Amino acid sequence: MLPYQTLDKKRLGHGLSEAEIRDVVRGAVDGSWSDAQLAAFLMAAAIRGLDENETQHLTLAMLESGDQWELRREFPTLVDKHSTGGVGDKVSLVLAPLLAACGLPVVMLTGRALGHTAGTADKLEAIPGLQQELDRQRCLDLLEVHRMAIGVATSNIAPADRRIYGLRDQTATVESISLITASILSKKLASGAGALVFDVKTGSGAFMIKRQEARALAEMLVGVTAAMGRSTSALVTDMSQPLGQWVGHLAEVREALECLGNEGPTVVLEVTYALAGELVDHLGIDLTRDDLEAAIAAGRARETFDRWAAAQGANAEWLAQPDLELAPEEFVIEAPRDGTLAQVDTRDVGLLMVEAGAGRRLATDAIDLGVALRYRVRLGEVVGKGQEMARLYLRRSDKDLHARFAACFHVADSGQAVPPILERVGAP
């Protein structure tokens, strides 16, 4: 079919066949579909929706558009984790070395920022010298010695997604459940982990703001993954406030290192332990929460991180004494009255961080690694007038920017604490 016919069919709300969906993906790779046509497909898919069969066809076509490493052939207990993205989410940097320190091989092909969220690949750029480009043999070498590999895959992994991913951010189609599923799984399944757990965020700082939407995404991710023969589950976790105490690339690396040193915030470790427990259950191995906590308390998780980072080129002197200097202009966000922190406009916080330089508006923009926000009070906590709720570290003084950051924090007569983990979604 001509692109026009496929687009017209989906615009009218009709289902697309596997052959039609494969034609879209083929066009994304070989250029026979223009950006305008692909953008029209994304918009039609976002508005009209793709059912589970269409989503599976799209996922498989995007997966098969590039290389498939099947690393589980060499490492049968290989595991992976994916987060749908949030503000201050640095769990991957803690989870991978923790599992590796306990003997479980972990591979994570990471992504860049999307919208108001920051990607793990962006955070890793804060580590001097770290080389993120990974191919199959490089992953095998790292897994053999260090039991972990984190980075950005070669361009031969899911090349269709590479083009479509950028267009989604430009066309306001980021939040489509089917497009999210196909994008995530076309890369995650390509590495070949046998067990995969999803951290699906919900709340004001998530792409799926409503909990029912997050549950639907979790069910789609788990359903499609299970249909492709992988052991999988998902946790729906809170993103109604930043995860942990820090937002910003350099600061989040620092917080991850603190967690690995048994000094980080409890909320980050709780999500980490819960996701680790899911993967352990999928493998059916004898590894308890006490074992995980002991790996951090004894320093093995931090040692694993350092050895892995050095193997991927990180500067040894930096690892021995990390230089974590933040931007110099500090601004304190104070409670405007006595009360309780009742709401945080977390998505707006993420977008303002991008505006302040901690993210990219355009793919060519440089990220200011030192711009950060320290989150001092959590939802449901009582505050007094003038009490510090957050502190900004900016490259420049900007009263308007300060005011807009402060407006994201709402104090009321009452408010509720929110647990970090809301529910679990298992395979059908």
Describe the 3D structure.
- The structure is a single chain.
- The protein is of the alpha/beta class and 428 residues long.
- The chain has 3 domains: 3-49; 71-154 and 174-321 and 421-426, Nucleoside phosphorylase/phosphoribosyltransferase catalytic domain (Pyrimidine Nucleoside Phosphorylase, Chain A, domain 2); 329-412, Aldehyde Oxidoreductase, domain 3, CATH 3.90.1170.
- The chain is built from 17 helices and 14 strands.
- The chain has helices spanning 3-11, 18-30, 35-48, 52-63, 92-101, 120-124, 136-146, 159-170, 177-191, 211-227, 249-260, 266-283, 289-297, 300-311, 316-320, 346-358, 399-406; strands at residues 79-83, 106-109, 133-134, 148-153, 195-202, 231-238, 246-247, 329-334, 339-344, 372-375, 382-383, 388-394, 409-412, 421-426.
- The chain has a 4-stranded mixed beta sheet with strand order 1-5-6-14, sandwiched between helices. A 4-stranded antiparallel beta sheet has the order 7-10-12-8, with helices on both faces. The chain has a 3-stranded parallel beta sheet with strand order 2-4-3, sandwiched between helices.
- Helix 10 links the parallel strand 5 (195-202) and strand 6 (231-238).
- The two termini are 35 Å apart.
